Amino acid sequence: MADGTGGGAPRPPRYRVEAAAADRAAAEAAAAELRARGLDAAVRTAGSLPSLTAGAPAGPGAIVAVGMGLAVPGACSPDELWDLLRDRVPQFSEPGGRMDIDALWSADPAAPDKTYTRTSGFIHDLRPHPRLRAELAAGRAPQREPSGLWLRHSVLQALDGVRLDAGTRTFAAVGMTADGGHAAEHSLLRHGTRLLAGPAAADPEPLAALYPAGSPDLAGTAPYRVVRDALAGIADPVETVVVDTACSSSLYSFDFGMRALREGRADVALCGGAYSVNAQTMVLFAKLDGLARGGLVRSLDRGADGACRAAGGTPRRLWPHDDAELSAADGVYARLRLRRVRETPL
To answer: Are 118 and 295 in contact, with CB atoms under 8 Å apart?
Structure first.
């Protein structure tokens, strides 16, 4: 293809789909769909991709991602998420018992305090990491707030096969927002009702049945407490930073983690984010006209009409690339050399 500037040199494809040999057919189908939409796309096979193995030279200051875990709608591990992406199975759904969608929804986008979409990315079927499952069964889980459970499950996955010795300096940076959880929303409503009712009220918890995810411990739903409890007993002691820069929070968490490793303040860093869709954000983003009316994400499509919010927890384990520490048994998912982060305002 000519570059359109008068020179005859081929222009590199604007979009490149990278895939292992086993996934070549799915990658070709994705590239063909992009081309059908008028976009320039090509497939690059895994054999031509740069690889990183234990012992490979990484250069000064290089950091590698050697563990990851996740909980997202329809998937409780990175492998399950890859299967969803490969099979192209949409995971947007109604919230079920998490909130009364009939009370929140209206077909009229201008209706006050209503959302025009009934679906988002909700986690309905978390299959906890074995350690978390045992803690829940024994009533010993330090955190039961949903986003905290997803975070704990995912951190345990990211640390599978790793023993953090007593002297290991762990740094955790987690992207999380104070309005990003329905448990906090329920707790706040119940707390406000208790204050209005007063100490002499016959029923001190009149909204308990309507907002079951709420907790009498309102402070326990604050992001720093959710993160602290999610990490309890996994990495002690741990220096923790909670990051809220809106949509870029999890990206900034990597910046904090890489700084801690490069400055010698930590031996291992846990970076990522956690988020739970609630009624407030469903209504807020509908009023901003930012949600997809059809309830589907249609990236790179001329018919795209908005975004869909989704819940999840997705930490990564970062390690300085040191041959003495990085064994051949460690799966290296990425090598991080430089960092540059920027938040684009709405």
So the answer is: yes
Residue 165 neighbours by CB under 8 Å, 6+ apart: none
Q: Which of 300, 318, 303 is nearest to 159 (CA)?
A: 318
Kindly indicate whether the domain formed by 56-179+222-336 is annotated with CATH number 3.40.47.10. Answer: yes
Give Cα 4 to chain centroid, integer Å.
40
Q: Over the stretch 14-66, which tens digit does the pLDDT of each residue have?
A: 666 767 666 778 778 878 877 887 778 888 775 544 443 434 444 456 788 88
Question: Which residue, chain included where needed, has tokens 């499509």?
Answer: 301
Q: Write the DSSP string, 265-292.
A: S-SEEEEEEEE---HHHHHHHHHTT-B-
Domain ranges (residues) in the chain: 1-49, 56-179+222-336, 180-221
Bridge partners (DSSP) listed for residue 16: 42
pTM, whole model, 2 decimals? 0.78
Q: How far apart are CA 248 and CA 246, in angstroms?
A: 6
| Nearest CA-CA partner of 270 in 242, 312, 248 | 242
| 31 vs 15: CA distance, rounded Å | 8
